[in-house]
């Protein structure tokens, strides 16, 4: 398990020291400026801004999903299945950045509520495929309204929200690529 207190500096070389070929990364002066500018204040932390915004966003979803009888994790699974029905549990986990074992209780509850069916995949009996039921399909029409409510609640033009989402996804991709071994 990764212990930040015992990390060798070499393991962070590619994250902290930008190459001259990659100008999209912050210059050393920028990193130093952040250090000089109260870098350890909570409100100056990108991680806290993302974390607290994620919590606020999840809280916004709760009252919108309750009338549909959905939790936020169930809603995320439905979003994936509305995009591509009948995919494997492992594939759903990969899209959400979770292990399939963590999703199993969510999917089981959705099955009990009549939203999805789980079946063994033909090519691999150990793998499960998840497919929407008609009830799960019908929720899609209601879910469209949820997006509009959230856009309005953000108070930011939808074009700017999409640009922000694109930047956050770029950040996520970069962080996943640069994870310490």
Describe the structure.
The structure is a single chain. By secondary structure, the chain is mostly helical. It has a domain at 67-173: Orthogonal Bundle (Arc Repressor Mutant, subunit A), CATH 1.10.10.10. Helix content is 59%, strand content 9%. The chain contains eight helices and three strands, in the order ααααβααββαα. It has helices at residues 13-16, 28-36, 46-65, 72-83, 89-96, 100-112, 134-154, 158-177; strands spanning 87-88, 116-121, 124-132. A three-stranded antiparallel β-sheet has the order 1-3-2. Helix 3 (46-65) crosses helix 7 and helix 5 packs across helix 6.
Q: What's the arrangement of secondary structure elements?
A:
Elements: H1 13-16, H2 28-36, H3 46-65, H4 72-83, E1 87-88, H5 89-96, H6 100-112, E2 116-121, E3 124-132, H7 134-154, H8 158-177
Antiparallel strand pairs: 1-3, 2-3
Helix pairs in contact: 3-7, 5-6
Keywords:
181 residues, 59% helix, globular, Arc Repressor Mutant, subunit A, three-stranded antiparallel β-sheet, 3 strands, 8 helices, mainly alpha
């Amino acid at each position: 398990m990764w212990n930040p207190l015992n990390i060798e500096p070499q393991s962070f070389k590619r994250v902290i020291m930008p190459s001259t070929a990659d100008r999209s990364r912050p210059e050393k002066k920028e990193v130093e400026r952040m250090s000089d500018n109260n870098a350890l204040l909570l409100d100056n932390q990108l991680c806290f801004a993302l974390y607290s915004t994620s919590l606020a966003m999840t809280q916004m979803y709760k009252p919108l999903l309750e009338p549909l009888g959905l939790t936020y994790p169930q809603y995320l699974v439905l979003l994936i299945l509305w995009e591509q029905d009948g995919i494997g549990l492992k594939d759903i986990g990969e899209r959400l950045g979770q292990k399939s074992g963590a999703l199993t209780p969510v999917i089981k509850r959705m099955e009990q509520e009549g939203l999805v069916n789980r079946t063994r995949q033909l090519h691999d009996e150990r793998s499960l495929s998840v497919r929407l039921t008609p009830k799960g399909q019908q929720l899609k029409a209601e879910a469209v309204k949820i997006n509009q409510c959230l856009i309005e609640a953000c108070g930011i033009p939808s074009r700017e929200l999409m640009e922000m989402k694109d930047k956050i996804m770029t950040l996520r991709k970069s962080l996943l690529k640069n994870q310490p071994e």
